[in-house]
Amino acid sequence: MPENPSVWEVRLGIYATPQQAEEIKERIARLLCPDPDHAPPCPIPWSVSLRHEEQLEEDGSYAELIEQAEAEKHLRP
After folding, report:
1. pTM (two decimals)
2. pLDDT value at position 57?
């Protein structure tokens, strides 16, 4: 018996500038829908959003990411 679809969330944390974050969001959108002008409906309905760390829940989900980014700052040109 096939399973009924439901909403799933894929979370991705990135340490980036606002411009880099927007570019990555657009790349993800193109992965999900390579032809934005296609006739509806999408085979798999989707949504993408972008949130700054100030808008996230305070659960420490990205503590390791922030620690890694801070530790690697000196490695960037």
Report:
1. 0.74
2. 74
